[in-house]
Every structure is written in C-alpha cells, then in structure tokens.
Amino acid sequence: MDISKDMTAAPRTIRRDDYTPPPFLIDTVDLVVELFADSAKVVSRMAVRRNPAAVAKPADLVLDGKKMDLLSVSLDGRAAAHEATPETLAIRAVPDRFTLEIATRLRPQDNAELTGLYKSRDIFCTQCEAEGFRRITYFLDRPDVMARYTTRITAEKSLAPVLLSNGNLVERGELDGGRHFAVWEDPFPKPSYLFALVAGPLDCLEDRFTTRSGREVTLRIYVRPGDVPRCDHAMESLKKSMKWDEDVYGLEYDLDTFMIVAIDDFNMGAMENKGLNVFNSKLVLANPETATDLDYHSIEAVIAHEYFHNWTGNRVTCRDWFQLSLKEGLTVLRDQQFSADMGSAADARIDDVRRLRAAQFPEDAGPMAHPVRPDSYIEINNFYTATVYQKGAEVVRMMHTLLGPERFRKGMDLYFQRHDGQAVTCDDFANAMEDASGVDLAQFRLWYAQAGTPDLKVEGRYDAAARRYTMTVDQSLRRTPGQPDKKPMHIPLSVGLLDGAGRDLPLKLAGEAAAGGTTRVLDVRNPRDVFVFEDVPEKPVASLLRGFSAPVKLQAPRSEEELTFLMAHDSDPFARWEAGQQLGARLILDMVAARKAGKPMVVPDLFVDAIRRTLDDQRLDRSFIADAVTLPGLAFLGELMPEIDIEGMWAAQQRVRGVLSQQLADRWSSVYDANHGSGPYRFSPEEVGRRRLRSTALSYLSTDKGEAARRRAVEYFENAKNMTEQVAGLGVLAELGGAEGDAALGAFHERWKGEPLVLDKWFGIQARTPTGDTLQRVKQLVDHPSYDRKNPNRVYSLIGAFASGNPVQFHAGGGAGYRFLADQVLATDRFNPQVAARLLAPLGSWRRYDAGRQTLMKRELARIVAEKGLSRDVFEIASKSLD
Ligand code: PHE
Ligand code: ZN
C-alpha cells in the first residue's frame, strides 16, 4: 500500500471571488537584519491594528511565514500566546491595536529557490514578489497591506561593505567586531512584495538626474567589482526613462536616490522594489564586446519597465494577485511606448506583435489559457505569463486606441489622482479611463475576463454602381478551460482603403456628413457587424488591423496579388509588414499541405518578386527590410494549423529560404557587401538596422551550406568587431556544422569562458541549432564544467532554449526530447520550483500534435505528476496540462 499519497494533500486553489479585505493592517515595520556568514537574524517590530473595513473580526492574528526558524514572539513587550504551522503563525486573542515583535533566523546561503533572502555568489539579496517576504519574517504577506518600512542592516564590514534597502539612507556607522550598520527609511507605504535588501561587495556607477520640478536625484548602479565600465548603457537608459515619463505622462521620481543592483542568480528579468530595483545582470551589463544589439535593446526596455513601475505598480499597486495585470499590462504598454519613441515605432510594434504571437497566442490556445485577470490559481508564480504581461499590454493599448491619446492621458491622470497610495483593481483602472473620457467600456471589460484569442473574419464587397464598399466582420471565440461559453467582445478594428495606385482613400462611413481621415477604428461589438463606406470611387484594397489594433487572429480572403500590393504600398508600416507575413504563411502552409499529399512544394514567383522589391525599395529603412524578408516563425505558423506538422513546416520554410537564397543571390551578396559598416560600435537605430540586415543576408547566403558559404561565414565570424556580429556568425556556423562549426564553437568558448553572460549565448546557440544531433549535444552540455544547474540564466539558455526555442529538435527523436525535459524539470524542482515550472510549459501543448507525439508528451506529464514531493508550481502546470 502506498501511504505517501495521503501525506501530500492536493494543493489548494485560490479564487478571486473569495477576496476579503485583510482583518488587520500593519502601519509600520521596523526591521533589524543581522547578516552573518552562515545565517541571518531578522527582528521585525510591527504596529498592528484592526482594519475598520474588515468584514470579520477574528480573535487571532494569522500571519504568513515559511521556511524560517521562529526565535521569539512578543506582543506589547510581553510573551504572546502563538502557534506556528509550516506556513502560518497565529497570535492568539489579540487586542485592537498593538506592537508585535517577531524574531526569526534564516539560512540565505542554502536558499536555492532564489526567493526570500538568498545569496548570489557573495551578495546577499532579496526577491519578495510575489510571496517572498514571508520567507524573511512572519507577515500579512498580501499586496493590500501597505506599511512604512525602516530597515537596519548589520554585517561584517569585510563581507558586506555595501548595505542597501528601500528609501533613503538615514544613518550608518561602525560596530564592534569589524561590523557596521546602515539604516534605511522608506517614507512611502508599500506592500511587502516591494521590500528589498542587498548587502555585499559592490561597486557603483553614480550619476544625477534633476526632475522637472527641480528635485536632485542621485542615481546608482551597483555591480560586482570590475563591472562598472559595463554600466553606461544602463545608466543612459535610466535617464532617458526618467525624462520620458515626465514628458509623456507628467510623472516624476519621488525619492532622493534611485538604485539598481545587478545580480547573477535571478529567476526573472528584474524587480521594481521601491527605490532599489534588483536586476538580472544580463539586463544591466553591456559593452560592445560582450553584449548584442538585442541585449542593448532589452536593457533599455527593462530599465524603463522597472522604472515606470514606480508609478504604475508602486505608488498605485494591486489589491490582490489576480489584479497582477493592473501593474504589468500597463507597465509593459508604457515600456512599449517608450521603445517606440526611442527608435523606429514600426519596428517596435512589429517586435511586440511577434512576441505576442510566439508566446501568448499558444498560451491562449493551450491548457494554461487564462484571462488577463485570472479567476483562480494554485501557485501565483505560475501567472507571470505572456497573457498577463503581453496581452495585458494589448488590452491597455486598445483603450488607448478607443480613447485617443489625449483622453487616455486624462484617464491616467484621473487614475493617479484617485488611487495614489492605494491597492486597487483592474476595474478601478477601467473606471478611471471611462470616467475621464466618457467612452463606454462596459463590454470592453470582457477582455479582462475572457481567455482565448478571438477569431475575426473580414470580408469586403464593392458595389461600383453605388460607389459603396461593405465590410462584414464576424467574430468568434473558442472555448478555453473553465470557460465553455463566450460573449462577443468589443474589438477596435483599425482599417484603411487603398486605391489602385496604392494611395489611401478618404473614408466616409454611411450616415456621416463628410469623409474624415484615411484610417478609421471600427467598433466591432457583435457576432457580426457590417460597416458601409460611401463615395468609394473604385474597387479598393482593404488594409486591415492597422497597427495590430487588437490581439486577434484575422482571416480575410485576400488574393496573393492583394497581399503583395499591400506589401508594396500600405501607408501603415505594421500592415505592410503583416501583409508579407500573411503571404509567407499562406505559402508555407500550402506547401506543407502539398508535401503531405506527396506533391512537390512550389514557391510562387510572386513571392520571390515581392521580396526582391522589398530589398530594392530605397525608401525603406534597413530594420524594416530585415523584418520584412524574415519568414514567419514556426511558433506563429503552428498556431495557424489544426494539427502542428513540425517536419512539414520546417521543410517548407527551408524550401522557401532555399529558393529566396538562390533566386536573389545577387541581392543578398550586394546587401551583405554594402552593409559592411565601419567605425566604432554605436547602438543607434541606423547601425542596429545595418547589422541586422547584413546578418540576415549572411544567413540567406549560407542556406546552401556550400564551400563559399562556409568560407564567408568563417570570415564574418573571425572579423566580427562586436558581440552582435560574433553571435550572428556563430549561429550560422553552428547550423552549418562540420569542422567550421566545431572550430568556431571551440574558439568562442575559449575566448569567453570567464564571462557568464557570454557563455549563456554559447550554450543557447548550441541548444537552438535546428540541424544535427542537438539533443545529444545538449545532454553533453549539461555535464560541461561551465554548466551550472543552479543558475537560472544558464538553465534557461540550455534547457529552456532547447525545449522552447528549438521545436524541430525538441519534437524529433521519438520522444527523447520530452523525456530529457521531464528529467530536467524533476531535478530542478527539488531546489528551484519556479524555474522548473517555467521549463515545463512546452509539454503542455500536446493536444496540438499528432497522436504519436500526444502519447509521448502525456506520458512525461503523467510521470511528473506522479512524482512525490512535487512543488505546487510544477504540480499546477503538469496537472492542468493533462486535464
Ligand atoms: N515584477 C517584475 C516585473 O515585471 C517581475 C518579477 C516577478 C520579478 C516576480 C521577480 C519575481 O517587472
Ligand atoms: Zn513588471
């Protein structure tokens, strides 16, 4: 008999509808944190009172707490009756108002979960979102309990010369025995998830920023000694972000210092702790030798994102974790707007959409599909998802589209005016937008509640006699887990009409007195809506979903000629790019079908011609050209197929690449030669575009794998002047394989084995190589001396890259990839459940594959669920994936 099952109770599901206000409030927290080589002692003194808004009046105060040793509890200075369980501490029969003092002891150096207080190399640091504070001390660890914090840190001076926490430094000094202390005071009440403490040997880059009302802010970026020269780009990004938020939203920084700390061991990208952002070092450190253009871009965007949280997240925070998108969706939209303003708006939008389609659309179509505002969870850490972040940003962007920029800004102003200092809900945000603008968002709110990607079918009919163009729009939304019936959504559909010369026609909808503008946002609200355009002089070509005005899957019966016409002429750059992607996707899917039917795969001349014209178009900038000649990715293509045919998609995509490579060989060569570039590295839109276009050409020139291609790739790699070029060259060589590939990988490792962030790239490139025996190589790399299973960046760059970034190889080999992933998930789950759960996601999409693969993928999920002592994180994903 197996009794172990009875010992592991099924994890509890938390529901949004069960929300009640906290029975107690905590006004102030005085923390004393003493750090030692092998432990930390925390004393927390809290001013607690009953919440007048509470619905119940319990006798006991029940605090959250986990994985600590409880040393003592006192209430108003006297011993207090209390009882601890593994996840709570109950203080018996408390008065209405009291001071509670709790002492705990922790072992940061043994904390491999990287949540709570832990050590990254020799640096002590904290990660409290979402529920990490309860691993530091017992607390009401929920975002609607906001307190003012004072933090006193002590440590041996030689171990931790730098002592940091939130807010302003109010005191520091020496202690006996080689120890010292610092006291930090944060004047702003905040939820516990925004608490942070960092201590260790750190150097810093310092700068200043004067806010527009004249506040002098000291900016500091703390890094490991020696890394200061790699902080300039992060610092520039921070200053740009601070200025931008003032200019665009009128939002100023509110403390005297703003600090960023870079940490090597971090589960996520970065964290917006008040006044003390903690970052994964890959999102801070950059110089041209070690960071790629993409790294530079990500650093700029994430520094901005975390900085913007100071208002959207910190000053106004979330009432409960179901409202996570209140801060994340809004802040992602803000960082997207910032990126659009820093470079090319068109490229930025194309990037947003690519990411949404590659990560969020599959999530919305899979077993973990959830609304932007989820209704339930087992483990909140599993809900830091593309849906909450990326789709959440699309939802706020749609409000921006429906209201227009001025009224949207008014809505933001009203939101801050009403809710500064509060913990609120997504509905509060929508209310502010609605009240400030007068735009009715009642139906629109369904975007927060209904999961799934709506399908939109658009058909147009031209009546020459009546000079009328009629657009019929049908919407539908498939069922998702727990949501069998869906209501029609309010979808902003941005459209234009082009005449035969490719010019925008003025648009006049039936009933309007005069034409107004050449782009119109149609309010789609019903299962079927019909829009009639009048005074249309000729049969137009419709440009649909301009700027990707809604996160939907669009189907429109447009001919290939119409799509190539839009590719050449659409005045909306997103729609122009999109026409090419639609055409490419249609073609590839046709080829997949042909291949399946045993027929030849044919690439029509029309497509080759369209790509040639794009390459020849002198008016387009290089980044856009690179975007436009890049074929749709496998994740996006897979979403368009009823059953994902990996081999088919890959074969078809390779065939198209081959044909483009051959037939446009002269173009790729001249693009490659013309974009050689000279002078020192600059991270400017022009230079980034040039490098991208050149490496795109290189990759087309390498598709035939011939001698000349190999020679060119080797030359490119060996002459690389920066990491962007090195990585591009290495990727091509790794795919070419053979002696050249091995030599390049060897040389790269030799040169960069002392640079963790560069080594991650080395692991990642090998894991993502679609050719050769990649799984075998990945398995060997797990045993490589440079591999570190405890470092999340390393794990994501090897295991994550293979399982999520290399569908061709992950799904090959009769299930060997699935088995490997499951083994890695189980091994990782023993010490870092968050990372384990993130790795697991690709197995959840089993329904999308053929019967054989379904069986194999489910088998691994079942093996995981059956494991004893599984974390809540992995249990939730694995079990829901099997449902
Ligand atoms: N709140 C962080 C952000 O998006 C992400 C994060 C979540 C980091 C949980 C760590 C832990 O800015
Ligand atoms: Zn965020």
If you had to describe this structure to a student in words, what would you say it looks like?
Residues 561-882 form the Peptidase M1 alanyl aminopeptidase C-terminal domain. It is an enzyme of class 3 (hydrolase). Residues 234-444 form the Peptidase M1 membrane alanine aminopeptidase domain. Keywords: Aminopeptidase, Hydrolase, Metal-binding, Metalloprotease, Protease, Zinc. This protein has 883 residues and is of the alpha+beta class. The protein has four domains: 15-308, tricorn interacting facor f3 domain (Immunoglobulin-like), CATH 2.60.40; 319-449, Neutral Protease Domain 2 (Neutral Protease, domain 2, Orthogonal Bundle); 455-550, Aminopeptidase N, middle-beta domain (Immunoglobulin-like, Sandwich); 753-883, Zincin-like fold. It has 28 helices and 31 strands. Strand 18, helix 2 (232-249) and strand 19 form a beta-alpha-beta unit. Helix 18 packs antiparallel against helix 19 (723-736). The longest helix has 24 residues, at 573-596. The radius of gyration is 28 Å and the shape is globular. The two termini are 26 Å apart. Residues 1-7 have low confidence and may be disordered. The protein binds phenylalanine and zinc ion. Residues 305, 309, 328, 331 line the site of zinc ion.
